[in-house]
Amino acid sequence: MAPLTSPTSPPLQDGDLLAAIDLGSNSFHMVVARSMLGQLRVVDRLRETVRMADGLDGKGGLSAAARQRALDCLSRFGQRIRDIPAARVRALATNTVRQLREPQEFLAAAEAALGKPIEVVSGREEARLIYLGVAHAQPPKAGQRRLVIDIGGGSTEFIIGRGFETLERESLQAGCIASTRRFFPGGKLSRKRWKEALTEIGAEFQQFAGLYRSLGWQEAIGSSGTNKAIGEICAAMKLTKGAVTAEALPQVRDKLLQADRIEDIDLPGLSSDRRPIIAGGVLVLEAAFEALELQRLMVSKAAMREGILFDMLGRGSDNDPRDLSTAALMQRYGIDEFQAARVEATAMRLFEQVEQDWGLDDDDARMLGWAARLHEIGLAIAHSQYHVHGAYLLEHSDIEGFSRQEQQVLSALVRTHRRGVPKNAFDALPDRLLLSAKRKAALLRLAVLLHRSHDNEAIPRLDLTASGDRLDLVVSKKWIDARPLLRSDLVGEPEDMQGLGVAFKPFVA
Fold first, then answer.
1. Can you give the pLDDT at residue 475?
2. Among candidates 148, 135, 126, 301, which has minimal Cα distance to 228?
3. pLDDT-based confidence at 2, cuts 50/70/90?
4. Rounded to whole angstroms, how far apart are CA atoms 98 and 92?
5. 457 falls in which pLDDT band (50, 70, 90)?
6. Alpha-helical runs (H) found in 216-336
7. How far apart are CA 442 and CA 151, in angstroms?
8. CA-wise closest residue to 310 among 44, 497, 128
């Protein structure tokens, strides 16, 4: 199989196929849709129960059986999307992959099986995408706030939003599989253990429940399979017409606890596929009802996979959420916007001269631009080692719209934009992103170096050529002679660039 490359994102055209893949802790989902006049028309859906979370050993390891189930499923998904360009496919991994001790080992095999790149998203980014999917499936009323709860296999997301934007996002390690394994080891059920577990989970929910209740909402919606299954049970028991209510949920719990063991659970409307994990799901939902004082939860058919599709529409237009997040970070950390703009303009000037020879694309240009805008973010902490502080902030913050890998690329670019290049600076990146990241880092270094004086004077000559790992820069002799400090920096730059695998040589003319 040919090596995977980072996809480009040209503007969407009517008729383009898009695919979203959600590697959940319980099930893997794929939705294929066609873009039509800025809208999406679903043409195919696939779902397989994988139960990846069942394979976690508590130490970041994944069982061979769970790993194989995941790879087999991704191989089948890959057959369906084989002819869809990689730029039109987003595959996102969630809680179980976040918990792996060595996620890249699994992701390399998973990408080979799928035939497309796979990204990992944080819990809060997962929450944003869930809300986006629900909001588009069930458009909210103007000005009203809504609460969305998504109980997955490994985690549960709680979101309050207005319109299509989130106001609050939380992700807790309390999914249907994780909670079933945690509180009912060996499959044993009891009312005593249920009460203890309810208290324990409820205590975890209290860290945000007060804030959520004070903010309030006009409607509450549950997404994903667990909420849907509980809603179907409520309907089958003739308690509601499909919603989950504060009166119905205890009756579902009491019926569930008539069984002494999980395999003996007998709930109307419950599929055999979901029986092994329903106890944890009902437990989490009951804790949520109590902590948030819920009375009624409607059920949505949409979830993160639909949110991924609509996020792709935004990325393919002028509404890329990553641009807004970058602007918010600049404002929050007091970044010098004029210096950032100068560095970005020069970085783009250099990029345009080498993008073809270096095999860089539109996505690389965007990433370089964001890195240029944020390269001084660490100054908000301290001037000394500010590139190190900035790298830490970018890797470990929850940045809306960015996957973990995208944040790791940003972090690596900011970490290496000055001083020496550490040998481990790019260790977190998958192999498919490594070469382009190092080349973007070289361009950012030059742009920052050329604007060290922070003045507004234009650079009169700037000719950059690339050939393989060689990079040659020609600048104006008159301009450089007036800047002895810059001349000295350029003389020392070839040695630092070696850490990026780039043979750099500056010239004056």
1. 95
2. 301
3. very low
4. 11
5. confident
6. 224-236, 248-256, 278-292, 304-315, 321-332
7. 43
8. 128
Q: Tens digit of pLDDT for each residue in 78-102?
A: 999 999 999 999 999 999 999 999 9
Which two three-digit tokens encode residue 166? 């989130």
Question: What are the pLDDT digits (tens) for 236-283?
Answer: 999 999 999 999 999 999 999 999 999 999 999 999 999 999 999 999
Q: What are phi and psi of 30, to 5 degrees?
A: -135, 135
Helices (H), 88-223: 95-98, 103-114, 123-137, 176-183, 191-215
- Per-residue model confidence as pLDDT tens digits over 151-180: 999 999 999 999 999 999 999 999 999 999
For the chain, the average pLDDT equals 94
HEC sequence for 319-344 = CCHHHHHHHHHHHHCCCCHHHHHHHH
Nearest to 117 by CA among 203, 200, 3, 213: 3
- Whether 34 and 15 have beta carbons less than 8 Å apart is answered as yes
Give the position of tokens 């390269």: 375
- Cα distances (Å, whole numbers) of residue 24 to 21, 43, 98, 177, 496: 9, 21, 11, 11, 42
Measured in whole angstroms, the distance separating CA 96 from the mean position of its chain's CA atoms is 13
**β-bridge partners, 464:** 473
DSSP-derived 3-state class of residue 36 = strand
Question: Contact at 8 Å (CB) between 220 and 296?
Answer: yes
